[in-house]
Amino acid sequence: MTRPVTDASFHTDVISATKPVLVDFWAEWCGPCRQIGPILEELSNEMDGVEIVKINIDDNPDAPSRYNVRGIPTMILFKDGAPVATKVGAAPKGQLKSWLEGALG
């Protein structure tokens, strides 16, 4: 299950995490963000090797600016506290899963 993170919890929830974390940068008003939300929920339930979290860019402006998020949805995969892969824009579930599996190695 995906869970929300905030600017205040970002370091603990993402940077210090013991397993890879996929961060979904999103906003309530973003149609494509709402479109991939259920897909990310499904992937979160299917993939044990990664945690999927969401950060609302309107409520939490620090993390998106730190990682140069210019468009949403943007998904950044963090491994060992560092960003290792980025995907911008909505995509079908199969494509997102393939991208994520490839990025996880």
UniProtKB/TrEMBL annotation:
Which Pfam families did the record assign?
Thioredoxin
**Where on the tree of life does the source sit, at the highest rank?**
Bacteria
Enumerate the spans annotated as Thioredoxin domain: 1-105
- What are its GO cellular component terms? cytosol
Q: What processes in GO biological process is this protein linked to?
A: cell redox homeostasis
Location of the active site: C30, C33
Name the keywords, alphabetized. Disulfide bond, Electron transport, Redox-active center, Transport
Disulphide bridges: C30-C33
Task: Tell me the InterPro entries matching this sequence.
Answer: Thioredoxin, Thioredoxin-like_sf, Thioredoxin_CS, Thioredoxin_domain
Tell me the protein family, please.
Belongs to the thioredoxin family.
UniProt GO molecular function: protein-disulfide reductase activity
Site positions (Contributes to redox potential value) are G31, P32
State the organism named in the record.
Polymorphobacter multimanifer
The beginning of the lineage is: Bacteria, Pseudomonadati, Pseudomonadota, Alphaproteobacteria, Sphingomonadales
Annotated protein name in UniProt: Thioredoxin
Site (Deprotonates C-terminal active site Cys) residue list: D24
